[in-house]
Design a protein that fits this description.
Layout lengths: L1 E5 L8 H14 L4 E5 L5 H5 L11 H6 L6 H7 L1 E2 L5 E4 L8 H4 L8 H8 L6 E5 L6 H9 L2 E7 L2 H21 L4 E7 L6 H13 L13 H9 L3 H4 L4 H13 L2
Parallel strand pairs: 1-5, 1-6, 2-4, 2-5, 6-7
Antiparallel strand pairs: 3-4
Helix pairs in contact: 1-12, 6-7
């Protein structure tokens, strides 16, 4: 089982869209895919028409019962989606309370230990993170083999990237092992100088870690989210999906 985390300490950069798009593409290859929503806002959960405000069994349950983690417990929380080979560990708004409760042994490894219970059930896990550093993001980073950092091609998003890379440096020192990561330019609009300039800065300043492609602005991604359909099924030949296909292939190289 391979695990990817999608994270950035800035919101609105395309994390949830990237999670669903890559997960959908993986299912096309027959892979059994699990999407994990670690964000109290529950954007990924809402994508599949679940309500984080009243959901009973969620990722929060795993933290509550972390001393009793088992395959059976995780199985009670796993939620099938309407799409073949695509499953979800949903979020609830209760996750927002974890930061003040995050005291005690093993709080940073709950997700890693959870995935160990179901390692034979899935081929690929993709984790969607909240846009701030805390126990939820730490869990997601500790559990993954590789990190994707979506970065909107605009100036303020580049500042957010600096914070994220600083976090990775600190995490690497504590883990005594660097986490492999890839910066993914998103929401690129070739019609605006700001977007073109930001992409150029990304390429110049972070050339060794930036994916060679870019995800363009595409209203079909928003329409897919509104319909609750993975983008690869909603608009399989669209320009954004062509870019995500390239990214998915790159991540497997």
């Amino acid at each position: 089982m391979i695990t990817w985390t999608v994270a950035n300490q800035k919101g609105g950069v395309g994390k949830t869209t990237t999670t669903v798009a890559l997960g959908g593409l993986a299912t096309e290859q027959g892979k059994r895919v699990l999407l994990v929503d670690m964000d109290p806002h529950g954007s990924l959960t809402c994508y599949f028409r679940l309500n984080p405000e009243n959901i009973e069994a969620s990722v929060f349950t795993l933290f509550e019962q972390r001393s009793q983690l088992s395959e059976a417990l995780v199985g009670q929380i796993l939620t099938p989606t309407p799409y073949a080979n695509l499953c979800l560990l949903p979020a609830s708004m209760a996750l927002a309370t974890l930061e003040r409760k995050a005291i005690g042994d093993g709080m940073g490894l709950v997700l890693l230990n959870t995935l160990a219970q179901i390692k034979d059930s899935f081929d690929l896990v993709i984790i969607d993170c909240p846009p701030q550093l805390g126990v939820l993001m730490i869990n997601a980073l500790a559990a993954c083999n590789q990190l994707l950092i979506p970065v909107q091609t605009e100036f303020l998003a580049l500042k957010g990237l600096d914070r994220m890379l600083h976090t990775l440096t600190m995490l690497g020192k504590s883990r005594k092992q660097e986490l492999k990561y890839c910066v993914v330019p998103t929401m690129f609009d070739r019609r605006t100088q700001a977007s073109v300039s930001s992409l150029r800065t990304l390429r110049n300043d972070y050339s060794n870690v930036v994916w060679p492609g870019k995800i363009p602005v595409d209203t079909k991604l928003r329409d897919a989210s509104k319909a609750g359909v993975p983008p690869n099924l909603f608009d399989p030949e669209g320009r954004a999906m062509e870019a995500y296909k390239s990214l998915y292939k790159y991540m497997q190289e």
